[in-house]
C-alpha cells in the first residue's frame, strides 16, 4: 500500500542566535525577528525525514509539507530543506514563532489539508513534531488530527514500520526511558514524532532544483492567514541569570544537596 503523507512544520529561529523578546500585551515578538536566520523546526524536520524514508520504501507514496510562516522566511528556508528529499509544499503566509496560539495554528493547518482536492483519507498519514522549538505546547498535532476526524493518534514516536499485513507498528516513548509498541490497522493516523531514528539526509542539489520548480509557484500562491490571538501576555523576558559561587572543602555530599535544595526553595 502507498500513502499520502502530510507533514506539518513551521520555522524556528536558528538556535545559535541570541533571542530577546519584545514585550507587547497583544503581539509579543523577538527583537529584530525579521532579520534573524531561521531553520525548519527541528521536531518537524525529524517527521519529514521519516516521511521521506517511508516514501522510498512504498513506491507511489507522496509527501507534502504544510507550513504556516512568513512567506519570505519560508522561501529562504525551503532553499535548504528542498535539497533533502522530494516533496510538495503547501504554504500559508502568516505569523509564526512562539507567541502564536496553538488552537488558531491548528485550525489554519487543518483547513489547508481538508481543502486539498485529491486528499484520500484512506491513505492519509499525518506527520508532525511532538512539540516545537518555538512554543513547546505539544498540542498542535492533536488539534489538527481532531479537526480532520483522525482518531488514531500517536505521540512521542521514535520508530514506524509496516507489517506484512499492512498494519503500522509504532514505537512511542513512555515514562522511565521505555517504549510502548502499538499496532494500528492502517491509515488514517496521526504520528507526532520525537527524535525519530534517522540521521539528517545529505544535501542533493538535483533534488533541490526539482523541488524548487514546484515550491516557488506554491509560495506565490500562498494563502494569507490571520491568526486569532486569544492569549493575553503579562510579561515576556529572558530568564534572569543568577550565579552564586562558594568554594568549600570536606563537605559531605548530603550536606551539599541539602544546601542546594534550600537555595532552590528560596
How many helices? The count is 6
Task: Tell me the fraction of residues in β-strands, as a range.
Answer: 15-25%
Helix content: 25-40%
Structural class: alpha/beta
Poorly predicted residue ranges: none
The major pleated sheet works out as: 9 strands, mixed
The top level CATH class name? Alpha Beta
Query: What count of structural domains?
Result: 1
Measured distance between first and last alpha carbons: 59 Å
What is the name of the CATH architecture?
Answer: 3-Layer(aba) Sandwich
Rg measurement, Å: 21 Å
- The residue-averaged pLDDT reads 89
Number of strands: 13
Global shape: globular
Structure description:
It is a single chain. By secondary structure, this protein is of the alpha/beta class. It has one domain: HUPs (Rossmann fold), CATH 3.40.50. The protein contains six helices and 13 strands. The chain has a nine-stranded mixed sheet with strand order 11-10-9-12-8-1-6-7-13, sandwiched between helices. It has a two-stranded antiparallel ribbon with strand order 2-5. A hairpin with a 5-residue loop joins strand 9 and strand 10 (168-174). Helix 2 (71-81) packs antiparallel against helix 5 and helix 3 (102-114) packs across helix 4. The chain is globular, with a radius of gyration of 21 Å. The protein starts with a strand and ends with a helix. The model has no long low-confidence stretch (mean pLDDT 89).
